[in-house]
Design brief:
By secondary structure, the chain is an alpha/beta fold. The protein has 17 helices and twelve strands.
Length: about 425
Amino acid sequence: MRKPFFKAVVAGMASVAMIAGMSACGRSANNADSDSDAVKTIDSSKATGDLTIWAMGNEGDLLGDFVKGFEKENPDVKVTAIPWSSAHDKLQTAIAAGNGPDLAQMGTTWMADFSNSFSTVPDNLDMSDFSDGSRATGQVDGKQLGVPWYIDTRVLYYRTDIAEMAGWNKAPKTWNELKQMAKDMQKVDGVKYGMNLNPSGTDAFLGTLPFSYSAGASLTNKEQTKWTFEDTGIKKGLNFTTSLYKDGVANVNADVSSGADIANFVSGDTPMMLQGPTAVSQINELGGDGFESKYATVVLPSMDESSGPATSFVGGCDLVTFKDSKNKQSAWKFIQWASKPEVQAEWYKKSSDLPASQKAWDDDALSGNDKLSAFGDQLKNTMAPPALSTWAQVSSAADRILEQMNKGQVTVDEGLKNLQSEADSIGTGN
């Protein structure tokens, strides 16, 4: 199973035996498919008892100190936050053994994998502050099982200094403008390619989804029982992205290793790319003093003048509570607390994770950052990849076939026909 696209799991942790020792005891794996004591309504009392949270990577390292804010409001609760490595396998093992946590950080691409172990979100947990796309990341089979914690999406990064030399003093608004701007920037000394898109490798297909989504694509039927890769919107999106390689605007043999696109952006070799929020700090660090004034982030360009705003994909992490938890009320109270705009804004300041809460973006730390404001605007128009247990398999097949399309080994129509056939064989898991 591949790691979620939004975050690499990097934190170290002790063995599963240590996890079990620190988790609540007496949980039965036999209860995995039932939720007889599910919380329908979060009551107004303070949280009490022991509460175990699993978090990964940077979040796991930081959460232990951050939960003191929750403990201050709920003095009779004790929160244990535990980071771990090899997250997917350890979580799988712990659930099977009945040693899972009360709640956990859950990658949006893992929601379907463990959905049978999650408790449904209580009716009175207010999720109106989250966008439709963010809420959808926590939905599996029509049930709201996760609550958005932080998000990741893609916007357009471009070198304003190079764009100006190419005769552009504004961001591209449509696909045609994007392509023309890329071609014009190639005429500037030192620029080799106008635009970077990963032509191959893990999640290359995911990187094309903003174009397909913006063209009205859906990867499955409404019931999520069938893949729909021959969708007209997907064809439109891929016809555009493959044309970038065909016309030499993008490098079909580009280095897709981690950080290569950042290095090429800073050097000016390739002055435009689609990237997420973590690229801001990476670019500023690599570029050094004053480089921040040489680039901009903007919402993605629309398909054409008559189409609506562009739609990017959305990922990130949800917070979930487990059916096996013996302290569900306190677990949901923690998630309710973590969903508050002011708490999400504070979490951003500590972790640099972008808030899922739309109101949190009013905080000066976010609204006053010209590099991040585009992400807040883009979040109003996002779609989540399908929350299906077979998505990782299908996405891997899509990465491989996309490379063939990008290199001209198959046409877009042929490639999507082949992908549809493979996806039908894999199924949706429903």
